[in-house]
């Protein structure tokens, strides 16, 4: 029986590798081949269990763009289920299906997505045995919580399972508070959810599932089972995009990077994990137990892109990797293979600015990327104070490498977007001024300056909590990047917000002045309903900077 495997012994190996950043750059990985061990006793014959995945509504500030795209995490889970005979699946992307159903929450925020009753109606028609709700971000969890309660009330026999970063890190408090939630599957659930559904199919004890978190009423305690180590992405099947309405996402046209030249886009990941431990990042923390850098081989990544192009006619790819360029050899091989598809490619999640270390190799990599269709990449500088970046944030990045990468990317013909943050705990005026001056010195094509968000499960969150630095109106379901969440050290919240707004406008006006040709790039969003952009088109089609606007939408 698969559930009798000693899963802890499977993961011992991963703790012994102890790889360093330079090892990952040279192509090593701490991925572990665990698929056969975990799923070897699940037959691939067709199963009866009916499963629904739900992406809940989204809450955001009124000054943010409303982004939606095919939920890649759900597509990956569904792909494994499909491979092992679970064919009765339904996906409800509430935020996309109800994209234009916008509710004013009267506190500077909005919620968009289907009404809960409409979701319940879809469920009642499909009659699933198991409902999986994925709330990737903390700002989604309030909606996920409310919807789950309604589902359990109307469909009490349905097994309700939650997943995602927020649920994985806050499972203890969530299960204590919400008795309607049956289980939380912690961490990557590509294999564990298939195990869970197979236990249900065979009418066996669901409490035995690896990574399952649940409330033990008898002993009044929360239990968390052993979480698997990092899977090898090369063993995963293709994401189950066939279960999704691609045309719906294309018609909306508001993915992570809304600056598109073609309607037919798709978001993919060619690696998981990040070897760094930036104290504000929930993604690296989420994947930390699952292997710090686990890439797809170039051939497997190529196969995924080839399938997307041939099956769906995709013309634009947005790669959501956290550290796409960490292994330059992999990037070059991948770019050589996909060049023939004549795609437009962007990297909304940014790259590591110092990879590879050798500048000639870095330029070579950028040139291959440009030839393959990469138009723009992002670099997350985060802060302009080197000591603060090293000792507080923990990013381990020489700021000079940001300057180098911007220059090299431009030489290759690739535009660069740069990210910064302000509002860290105990951040002083002198720290902020170093960020401002460093940002002003860069020749980037666009900028984002965001307010720091204390995400649950991060070291930053614990620091803020320990020192009572949450703003009085702090709400975990209202964590966004254009609201002051942390009490500033030597500046008022109002002045900090004003500073960030003005700096966003100043830096992007500077970029446009340095390169007037960027006006053509902003033409890509002029007909989109993006209220939060720092740029607004007027009738004369000239781009002007709006001092009143602020948000997260910048050209990527």
Concise overview:
By secondary structure, this protein is of the alpha/beta class. It contains 21 helices and 20 strands. The chain has a seven-stranded mixed sheet, with helices on both faces. Strands 11-14-15-16-17-18 form a six-stranded parallel sheet.
Write the layout of secondary structure elements.
Elements (H helix, E strand, L loop, with lengths): L6 H11 L3 H5 L9 H5 L11 E5 L2 E4 L10 H12 L5 E5 H4 L4 E3 L4 E4 L3 H11 L3 E5 L3 H17 L4 E5 L1 H5 L1 H7 L5 E3 L6 H10 L10 E5 L4 E4 L21 H7 L12 E4 L2 E2 L9 H7 L5 E2 L2 H15 L3 E4 L8 H11 L5 E8 L7 H14 L1 E9 L3 H8 L5 H14 L2 E8 L6 H13 L4 E6 L7 H8 L26 H22 L4 H4 L12 E3 L5 E3 L11
Parallel strand pairs: 1-3, 1-6, 6-7, 7-8, 11-14, 14-15, 15-16, 16-17, 17-18
Antiparallel strand pairs: 2-5, 4-5, 8-9, 9-10, 12-13, 19-20
Helix pairs in contact: 6-7, 13-14, 14-15, 15-17
């Amino acid at each position: 029986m698969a559930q009798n495997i000693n899963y802890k012994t499977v993961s011992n190996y991963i703790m012994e590798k102890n790889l360093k950043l330079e090892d990952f750059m040279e192509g090593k990985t701490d991925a572990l081949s665990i698929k056969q061990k975990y799923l070897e006793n699940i037959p691939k014959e067709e199963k009866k269990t009916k499963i629904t995945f739900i992406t809940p509504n989204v809450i955001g500030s009124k000054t943010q763009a409303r982004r939606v795209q095919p939920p890649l995490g759900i597509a990956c889970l569904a792909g494994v289920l499909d491979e092992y005979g679970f064919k009765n699946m339904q996906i409800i992307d509430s935020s996309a299906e109800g994209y234009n159903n916008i509710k004013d929450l009267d506190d500077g925020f909005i919620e968009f997505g289907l009404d809960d009753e409409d979701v319940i109606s879809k469920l009642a028609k499909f009659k699933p045995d198991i409902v999986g709700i994925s709330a990737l971000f903390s700002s989604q969890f309030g909606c996920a919580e409310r919807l789950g309660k309604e589902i359990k009330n109307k469909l009490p026999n349905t097994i309700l399972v939650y997943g995602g970063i927020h649920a994985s890190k806050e499972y203890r408090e969530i299960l204590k508070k919400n008795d309607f939630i049956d289980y939380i599957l912690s961490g990557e659930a590509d294999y564990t959810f298939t195990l869970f559904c197979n236990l249900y199919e065979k009418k066996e004890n669901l409490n035995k599932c690896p990574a399952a978190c649940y409330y033990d009423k008898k002993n009044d305690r929360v239990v968390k089972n052993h979480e698997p180590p990092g899977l090898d992405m090369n063993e995963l099947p293709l994401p189950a995009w066939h279960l999704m309405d691609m045309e719906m996402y294309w018609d909306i046209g508001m993915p992570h990077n809304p600056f598109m030249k073609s309607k037919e886009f798709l978001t993919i990941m060619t690696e998981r994990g990040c070897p760094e431990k930036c104290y504000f990042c929930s993604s690296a923390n989420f994947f930390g137990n699952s292997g710090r850098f686990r890439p797809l081989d170039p051939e497997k990544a190529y196969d995924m892109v080839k399938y997307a192009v041939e099956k769906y006619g995709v013309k634009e790819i947005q790669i959501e990797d956290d550290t796409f360029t960490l292994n330059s050899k992999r990037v070059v091989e991948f770019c050589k293979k996909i060049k023939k598809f004549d795609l437009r490619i962007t990297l909304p999640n940014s790259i590591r600015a110092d990879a590879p270390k050798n500048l000639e190799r870095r330029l070579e990599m950028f040139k291959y990327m440009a030839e393959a269709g990469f138009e723009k990449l992002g670099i997350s500088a985060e802060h302009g104070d080197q000591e603060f970046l090293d000792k507080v944030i923990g990013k381990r990045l020489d700021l000079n490498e940001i300057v180098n990468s911007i220059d090299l990317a431009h030489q290759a013909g690739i535009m660069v977007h740069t990210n910064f943050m302000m509002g860290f705990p105990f951040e002083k005026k002198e720290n902020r001024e170093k960020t401002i001056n460093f940002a002003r010195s860069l020749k980037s094509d666009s900028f984002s300056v965001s307010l720091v968000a204390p995400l649950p499960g991060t070291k930053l969150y614990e620091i803020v909590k320990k020192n009572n630095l949450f703003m009085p109106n702090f709400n975990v379901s209202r964590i966004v990047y254009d609201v002051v969440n942390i009490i500033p050290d030597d500046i008022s919240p109002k002045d900090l917000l004003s500073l960030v707004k003005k700096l966003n406008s100043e830096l992007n006006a500077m970029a446009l002045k340095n390169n007037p040709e960027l006006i053509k790039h902003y033409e890509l969003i002029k007909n989109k309903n993006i209220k939060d952009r720092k740029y607004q088109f007027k009738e004369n089609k000239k781009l002007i900077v709006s001092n009143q606007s602020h948000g997260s939408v910048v050209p990527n």
